[in-house]
Structures are given as C-alpha cells and as structure tokens.
Amino acid sequence: MTNKLKYISTESYYEGIIVEVTDAAVIIDFKGRLGQLKVPRRMVISNDELEVGHQVGFMMTYPEVISKEIDETYTESAKRQMEARRKADERNKNK
Amino acid sequence: MSITKETAQEHANDLAITCCRFEAGTIIEPSNLEDPSLIPDLEDSGLLEIPDNSLKIGEVLGTKLKETVDALTPLTKDLLEGVISMDGKEEVEEEEVKKQENKEMKSIEPVKEVNPVKQFSGGTVKIHIGEGRDINLEIPLSIAGNLTEGTNQVSNSNITTSEVEKREEQEEKEEQSEKILRKLVRKHFKIEKVDLGRETRIDGTTLYIRDDVLKDALDSEELVIDIKLEIITPDRYGEYSETIMDIQPIATKEEGEIGEGVTRILDGVVVVVTGTDEDGVQIGEFGSSEGALDRNIMWGRPGSPEKGEIFIKTEVTIKSGRGMERPGPMAAHRATDVITQEIRESLKNANESLVVDREEFVQRRKSGRKKVVIIKEIMGQGAMHDNYIMPTEPVGTIGAKANVDLGNVPVVTSPLQVLDGCIHALTCIGPASKETSRHYFREPLVLEAMNDDEIDLAGVIFVGSPQANSEKFYVSKFLGMTIEAMDLDGAIITTEGFGNNHVDFASHIEQVGMRGVPVVGVTYSAVQGQLVVGNEYMNAMIDNNKSSQGIENEILSNNCLAPEDAIRAVAMLKAKIAGEEIKDAERKWNANVKLNNVELIEEQTGRKIELEDNEQSLTKSKKRQEIYEVEND
C-alpha cells in the first residue's frame, strides 16, 4: 500500500497527553498544540490502567492525499456520526 | 552493532558484514560483525550493497583482514587471509559443531520432502541411531508410512521397513484405547417464514413472534430506551442497517447442560443485534458496519449469516453517551436476548416430528496420540471488548458471567461446550476481525482439531485480554501454569482483532513455548494489524487475512478464522510437533506465503482446500470501485 505515497518513512516521535478515557476509546492531545487523536482503547499499550493525564509517546508521519476521488459513502457515514456526537455534546451542555 | 558469539553461531550461514572500520591485520571475531537481522533494512535503505561473492559468518571467523575496511563492508575472499569454505575441512571448534548440525539436517531433509502421503492415523515413529552424537529422528507416521512402500525415498539405510512396521503395529494397539467423554446431539428445525403473531410459537416451518414482545425487552433494561424488531428476508438484504453488533444462532437445551445432551437449533434464521445510542452514534468501537447489509457482510463465514437466511434483527437504542461504556452494549445484548429467550422456550415445546436433521458430536480422549489444546484469547478490555461465558442456554445471557468480571483468567472448556454456545460474544471491535457468537458455535478450528485422528484435542482454553500490561502478564502466567499441568504435546493460540491484545498474545505463546510445548499462533495481521511484539517462540504463525489488500475493511467476518485457516493451523502444528523446519517469515506481508502452504498441504494430504471468497465477491462500493480497485479493462 505504501507504494501509493510519494513521501515515505518520515515518521518521527511525538508525545501527547490522554485527555479523555471511556470504556472504548481514549483521546490524546498532542503536545505543542498539534491537535488531537481519538483511538480505540485496545490500541494503547500501557503498564497501568489508563487515566486522564497519562503521557503517551508514538511515531507518526504526515498524512498524504493519495487520491482525489471523493469517497461518498464513507464520508456520509462519518459525518453522520460526527453530527450525532456534536448534538449529544450540545444537549449535555444544556442539561 | 557488533554481535555476540552465540549470535554468530546461530547465524553461521548468514552474510558477514563488518560493523565498524577495522584496520588491516585484525582477526575477525563476532564483535567485528554486523547483526544479520539488520542487513535487509540496511540493504533497503541503500547503505549496503551485497556482492555475489560475499562470505558467510561461519567462513570468516578467525580469518585475518588483508586491508583496512570501512563499516558495512561485505567480507569477500580477496579481503581476507585464511578463509576456509564451509564445505572444506574445518579447524575452528565452533564450526565443527555447526557443520555437524548441518549434516544432521541433511540426513533428515530427503525424508521431509516425501510426497504424496498415504493417510495413517496418528503417532510418530521414533528411531534412535546410536552412533556419533546420538541422533534422534522423529518422523510422523504419515511420512514414515510411505517408507514402507519401498519407494526411493528411503535414504537412511538404518531404517528398515520391518522396524517401522513393528512400531506401527504397536502404535496402532495403543491407539485403540479411545474413550468417549461426552456426546452432543443437535436437532435441527427448519424455518422458512418468520412472522408476528399473538404468541411466540413454531408452527410447521413458520416461526411466529409475539407482537408485543418488544415491550418486555424494553422494560428489562434501564439503559435501553427503544428497541425495534425487523424481519429481514433475502429480498431486503439491500436495506440500510445500523452497525451489526452480533450474529447469534437460536438454540436451546432439550436435555443436559451446555456441551452435552441434546440441543435444538433453528435453521434458516439468525438473530442479528444492531444498535445506536439515542443520538444516533453507532454502538461499535472504531469501525462500524452500518450501511446496506449485503455490502457489509461476508456471507457464509463461520461467524456470519448464510445467504438466504432470515434475519430477526433488533435495533436497540440505548441512553445517550452510554455506547462507549461497558453497561451500554451489554444492555443491548440482554434486551435482544429477552426476545430470543422466548423463541427458545417455544423451540423447547416444538413437536419432535419437525426435526429435519440430526448431527452428533463426540468428544473422545484419544490416548497414544499427540495431546493438544486450543487457546482462544478473547477481548477483555471492557465495554465492547468482553464476552459472556457459560450461559444456561446456548449463546444466551442468563446465568453467564462476563470474562472481565472473572478477571480475564484462563477458563478451560470442552470442545463441545464451545460448539454448544458457551460463549456469548459482546465484542464490537472492527467488524472484519471480531468473532461473533455464531463463530464460536461453528468454530472451524475446534471442529478441525476434534475430527483429526492424528491428534487428541484435550480442551479449549479461553483467556481474556485485559487493558493494562501488568494484568496481561498476570493472566498469561496462569495460562503457562495451566499448560504445564496439562502435559501437552502442542497448542494453537488464536486472537481476534489487533492492537494491544497482541502484547498478551505474544506473552501467551512465550509462556507455552518456554515449557517446551510446540505452539502455533493464529491471528489477523497482514499489512495493517502487524504484531506489536514478538519472541523466539513465535516462528509458526497463521494469518487470517482474506482481504485482497491486507487490511481491515469493515466487512463483517472478512478476516476471521475460516476453515482454510483451521486446516493450515493444524497442519502447521503437526509439522512443528514432528520437528520440521519452519522457514523464517518474509519481511513484508505476502499473500503467496499462504497459497504456497495451502498447495503443500494439498499435495501432502491429497485433500482439496476450499479457499474462501473475500470482499471481491460482494457488490463493490463506490469507494472500492473508483479508488482502491480500479479495473483496467
């Protein structure tokens, strides 16, 4: 699959802080205001039970657009999920 | 990076490359050489070019450098003084050992290549040759049996056919002591139509479901705020569905407990659990299969529906935000089970004359054969990474305990308990690699190992995969002790999904391997789910991947253990028990490795292995058609 990329093996070491833990996912805030990443809990390797505030390290590379074709079904489903979450957050705020 | 003496011995046949700059006159020792495992990387990155006349580590040790060389120079004859080729007379003691080992290997090799093989049932021939360094040969009967046919493969003059035959007779006698431990009978009832009615009952081949059963299901769980029931017939396969959380067979006990006695089962119909929370967020952890049903299901896999089956599909809505917490998904499963339980009750009362098919499973203790177990690592990180173990009804929820609550410790079950639905899968990891409840009910590896007459399947061990590493190693140690106590000849370890569960997967393999028990690992990995860690016992691995690109593609059951994988796993375990050499893995995932293995097994056993279809057989989604798999013609 990697032969689709023009720029390869540029991964470097990043660190982040766990800012949210649920039974299924964790949100990692990258140090240096580089953004956030939400990953399944089972993807995080840890010696201890995961907690908010834990520091994590990982390797990452820059995402590269490999195709300009629009993937409609995937986008729609992801958008629907994002919208649902946004609504839920709003409702929780008003409570 | 220089290497140690041990590494040098181990890699005597690998290329000798200098690790640093060395002056002329240096006597080559292991500490002058680069780690052979790094060489492919160095080659890839262009730092290293290897000429054809490069020497091997075994050849260069003890020789003297004629000229000064830089780091990462492949050693060749013209750079060194006193090179002895590995075929020549050796002077160095280390090499002597190496050479002797090589000789041993050579004497076994011709036997290894014997094919095709007559099927002999089980056991091995042990031949002891009391000359030189006490060479012990252990050849599987299936291969040794061929020797008796007097083919030209008899390369070792020390093996006489009469010896083999005598031994064979003895083995056969031993084998006769087979003990039946328990039996399980499945009575099949055919369902051709599902409808709503005033009461839940089975009338001929029609299943009626009480029309107000949903109210009971809804009232049973606090977290469930709505539940819908749909009857999906094949003509409605193209309809939209929320993510599939589980596929469940409908079965009930007529007699006995789970794993023995008589089970009644409905054919032609399955329960499909789907759901979201009240904001419409899918109850599935990263990667959900919502969308048109027929584009998201790999039909006919052990864990998925068959084409043509009727789905009793629930769509459970749980309280906002609870989908990502443990009680949420559990509530969705339990609410659905209220409906299934009612069908089970009516199945218990169904008329015996409606039985269309009868299957019998027998668990035997086959003494005299290789005793093996199957270890299934199941998700135990919480939420959607959990399983109910041992309900009172097949694949039910009542009476069962969650393996997270059990502390994820190893639980030993009988193969028949697995096939009778002792696991209710709550797992909602990636749809393509999660094992649904139906998967356990039709677990191909258990069936394959149980029906193989050359091995004795002693049991199936379930072990949970906790979140934290400390807990992973905690449960893994218990697994090791369980294995030690069982006095096994081999084990197959499987895991579903990928991620940190591969940390304990590796640890389980180590715990089993370090006790001298040959072990084979089965998992989905391909290009995406690469293992996080490894160890020296992980040299026999089966990859469950079926997707053409080697990735998880959110199509239900696509990358789960299928019969073809089960056949490969059992064959590999038998080869490992017999002490056959297993080739090192290729550096990158390559689908041909599997195809080669399949071909070899077919050649050796004369058995045709049906390879599963993959997502290519489904209607292509727009995404696949236009981006990933553009057709050139």
TrEMBL record, chain A:
Question: What InterPro entries does the annotation carry?
Answer: CBO2463_dom (IPR048108)
The region called Disordered is annotated at 76-95
- Name the domain of life this protein comes from: Bacteria
Q: Which NCBIfam families match?
A: CBO2463_dom
Q: Would you tell me the protein name for this molecule? A: Uncharacterized protein
Origin species, per record, is Senegalia massiliensis
Automatic annotation (TrEMBL), chain B:
Which terms are listed as keywords in the entry? Answer: Oxidoreductase
* Keyword presence, Cell membrane: no
- The EC number(s) given in the record are 1.21.4.1
- Bias type Basic and acidic residues, positions: 163-176
Q: Does the keyword ATP-binding apply?
A: no
Q: Where is this chain compositionally biased, Polar residues type?
A: 150-161
> Could you tell me which Pfam families the record lists for this protein?
Gly_reductase (PF09338)
Q: Could you tell me which residues belong to the region Disordered?
A: 150-176
Q: Which Gene Ontology molecular-function terms are recorded?
A: D-proline reductase activity
Which leading EC class covers this enzyme? oxidoreductase
NCBIfam families the UniProt entry points to: D_pro_red_PrdA
According to UniProt, the name of this protein is: D-proline reductase (Dithiol) proprotein PrdA
Protein species of origin = Senegalia massiliensis
